[in-house]
UniProtKB/TrEMBL annotation, chains A, B:
Pfam families: OMPdecase (PF00215). It comes from the Bacteria. NCBIfam families: pyrF_sub2 (TIGR02127). This is Orotidine-5'-phosphate decarboxylase. One of its GO terms (biological process) is 'de novo' pyrimidine nucleobase biosynthetic process. The keyword Lyase applies. It comes from Hydrotalea sandarakina. The lineage of its organism: Bacteria, Pseudomonadati, Bacteroidota, Chitinophagia, Chitinophagales. The keyword Lyase applies.
Length: 280, 280
């Protein structure tokens, strides 16, 4: 699925919710933990319960790598279980020199046929270009992340080399501005944390047309209304991720119903926002 | 193995060579490609042929992930085949928020018992701290990388927040300076590219005691003598990685002998440098 199709799904399904499958064996309901292939079983149950309330699933590779090659099998099986009506994201945050980046692109766009993958910008253009060569896929670059220590480096003030004046920008602003020049908004998104709603407005001014993947709503405390207020564009332009607040909504035998209820709550809030913004 | 033991190995074995196992099926000798488990077979042959000439092996996760879960098995089998006299590095360049970073640390320090893992700094302290909690392991943070597009972001001029004056630094300098304050040189290294030998001197001034992992010698064109000139410290402080120039030295049935010969050439140059520098 490409981004213009994601936009259609958002309008049709009246939500811009991505559910993050950050699954850990010791956090899933106790009664499932002893089952064979418990994590896959849990993921399938969560997908069954929530697919009507979201348009995307994001698989965080760390949680699967922590299980070794078995985890990689579960990741693959989970990906293939996601309906093709949903936009699939490998949250991998990879970044390396060109010939290595090409292998990561192959891993997440071919071997595992995800629609999108997250990548890290530190190493610059040759670490990102190999992903952009898959023009029918979506590359999602870290811009301003939702964690507190984004202030360590992302929020540093940098002097722009292109400028003759002494004008300065934040590192994340320059990262977003520069990378936006390497591909069209049809195949490039940016990660912009929901916990940084005030900065989201200035980022939207830099890249008016790009989709944002927005983590940080839910457990991390970001506000959905603020995100919609500051991140909206005329193509909607927002995909909000919620992970733990939905998938671990409940640890009892009712976990599916509770996850569905939590997802439905987000879907309903988003439908309201969409109705208001699109004046449907 | 910890860094003080790596230093001992370097003196004993008279080299500071790390060999990068960036193995791709279509680049290994044709006569091996049809064998079952060809990549693992190749890796074992390369390790057998080169282990007397190096002190470390670095496994680049991208090349294994591109093969899916089978690749993850090969990665694990390769790791377990490396003699415990050698320092093992997962070249993974991971970086994510705290609870995810903890899963990556588990993946590469527990599930796969590497001695060290490479991580990316963009997201700041909470993306790196979970690795540093493994105090008997080594965390290797990207500083200044060997690729051309390190100039896109790593080499930007940033204004230091801590300073009252208008003093400025390169982003990679500030990254290295700040991260060096989070752990002792016993458990923290920095990636400093060999293609950036002139900058290596100023980085050595910032972190006089830390080990550098130095990619870029070999196929990428960095000079071993320049690296030794500018990167040396009183603990040696250098681990130079060579990947393609050694493992793909030859594509015939003699590939093992030719890889060994190439590794031996580096070992011999390094022994000369060590003899000179340590005045043995």
């Amino acid at each position: 699925m490409q981004l213009h199709q994601l936009s259609e799904q958002i309008v049709d399904r009246k939500n811009f919710l991505c559910i993050g499958l950050d699954t850990e064996l010791n956090k899933i309901p106790k009664h499932l933990q002893q089952q064979p292939n418990a994590v896959l079983h849990f993921n399938k149950a969560i997908i069954d319960a929530t697919k009507d309330y979201c348009v995307s699933y994001k698989i965080n590779t760390a949680f699967y790598e922590a299980m070794g090659s078995k985890g990689w099998d579960i990741l693959e099986d989970t990906l293939h279980y996601i309906p093709n009506t949903h936009f699939t994201i490998a949250d991998a945050k990879r970044g390396d020199i060109g010939n290595t980046a090409a292998q990561y692109a192959k891993a997440f766009f071919e071997t595992l046929p995800f629609d999108a993958v997250t990548v890290a910008p530190y190493m610059g253009e040759d670490s990102i270009k190999p992903f952009l060569e898959y023009t029918h896929k979506t590359t999602i670059v870290l811009g301003l992340t939702s964690n507190k220590s984004s202030e360590d480096f992302e929020q540093l003030t940098v002097l722009s080399k292109d400028s003759h004046s002494s004008s300065s920008k934040k590192l994340y602003e320059l990262v977003i501005e520069k990378i936006a020049s390497w591909a069209t908004p049809n195949q490039l998104m940016f990660v912009v944390g929901a916990t940084k709603a005030s900065e989201m407005q200035s980022i939207r001014a830099i890249v008016p047309e790009h989709f944002f993947l927005v983590p940080g709503v839910g457990t991390q405390g970001g506000s959905l209304n603020e995100v919609a207020e500051f991140g909206w564009n005329n193509q909607i332009g927002l995909l909000v991720n919620v992970s733990r607040a939905i998938i671990y909504a409940d640890a009892s035998e009712n976990f599916q119903q509770m996850a569905a209820a939590e997802a439905a709550k987000y879907q309903s809030e988003m439908a309201e926002i969409l109705n208001r913004k699109l004046r449907l």
